[in-house]
Amino acid sequence: MRFCLYGPGATGGNFAARLAAAGNDVSIVARGAHLEAIRTRGVTLLAGDKKIVAKVKASDRPADLGPQDAVLVTLKASGQHALAGNVEPLLGPDTAVAFVQNAIPWWYGPGLPKSPRPGPDLDPLDPGGALAKSVGMHRVVGAVVSSPNHVIEPGVVENEVPDRNILWVGEPDDRPSPRIEALRAALKAAGIGSPATTDIRYEIWHKLMANLTGSTVCLLTGQPVQVQKTPLINRLSRRAHAEALAVAAAHGVMLDDHPDERYGPKRVYTSHRPSILQDYDLGRPMEIESIVRAPVAFARSAGIDTPTLDAIESICVALAHAKGLYTP
What is the Cα–Cα distance from 22 to 116, expressed in whole angstroms? Predict the structure, then answer.
């Protein structure tokens, strides 16, 4: 398949290297030092004792790359506005565009199966509908990622947990389709897990639990995931988790995600610094809207009281705003 990774940082670099090594025609839209390194040396992936060096096409101009079978947008939600107006050269009539991100995506509403309650206004995730207009809803593929990575230097990515590389994909309306089957097959052939799912929003909320109730606490404390095992922080995360489960259920998503599994004694707490904390540390725009504010908006639209999540939202917004990394 012809794949384009749009805006590959850590996770995008991982997937680009794996897909290219599996024989796919892979291109990358990047910029700056990352682009120059990829042009010169390719993408290097370090995963345990494995090293993959993949030569790929790379440009900061999508017009240099041409129409693709699939575009994997690995820009964070806070940077996806860059796609609008620039993606058209990559699009053919049947191009699938998968938004590989954390938390609530901008396309969550369209195609939504009947919900017990109306959802909130998600316009802040796609102001003016720019992404919907540029991509076209018929091309959108839902995607949820679980793959901890970080960029060691431009063009070089380390996969922190080599046996955990998963990308769930699904149609926004959850119908089975040939393009989803083709995507899953290509991902699996490249060593990227892609389990079948009949409810992409279940996967969205399940992944969101880790970011909304755990990663945000790492941001508040400035500490890696290990902080979540300390008794007071663990109690805070559990309370946030219980509230988030109730919000998801109110909107028709019943999660099999017990607090004892998420934050219990069998959980392995690593030294990983979640992406929202990495962004804060490095002064990069933060995914406050999709990880924190949108889920709380779901709570308010359902009339659910979420004091712990409200407090987390307030402090996350204040921290990000004070550094100029998010504008309320």
Answer: 43
Distance CA 27, CA 41 (A): 14
DSSP H helical ranges for the chain: 10-21, 32-41, 130-135, 178-189, 200-210, 216-221, 231-250, 259-263, 275-282, 288, 294-301, 307-322
pLDDT at 114: 61
316 neighbors 216 (Cβ within 8 angstroms): yes
Calpha distance 321→237 (Å, rounded) = 23
Catalytically active residues, by annotation: 207
Q: According to the model, what pLDDT value does residue 260 have?
A: 85
**268 φ, ψ (degrees, to nearest 5):** -95, 120
140-146 and 149-153 as β-strands: parallel, antiparallel, unpaired? unpaired
Q: What is the pLDDT of residues 20-41, one digit of tens each?
A: 999 999 999 999 999 999 999 9
In whole angstroms, what is the distance from residue 127 CA to residue 131 CA? 8
Of 234, 305, 291, the closest CA to residue 103 belongs to: 291
Is the model's pLDDT at 111 over the cut of 80?
A: no
| Model confidence, pTM | 0.92
Q: At what angle do helices 231-250 and 294-301 cross, to 10 degrees?
A: 60
Residue 37 near residue 8 (C-beta atoms within 8 A)? no
- The answer to whether residue 222 scores a pLDDT higher than 80 is yes
**Please, are residues 74 and 30 in contact by the beta-carbon 8 Å criterion?**
no
* pLDDT per position as a tens digit, 52-73: 999 999 999 999 999 999 999 9
Q: How far apart are CA 115 and CA 32, in angstroms?
A: 43
Alpha-carbon distance of 168 to 297, in angstroms, equals 25
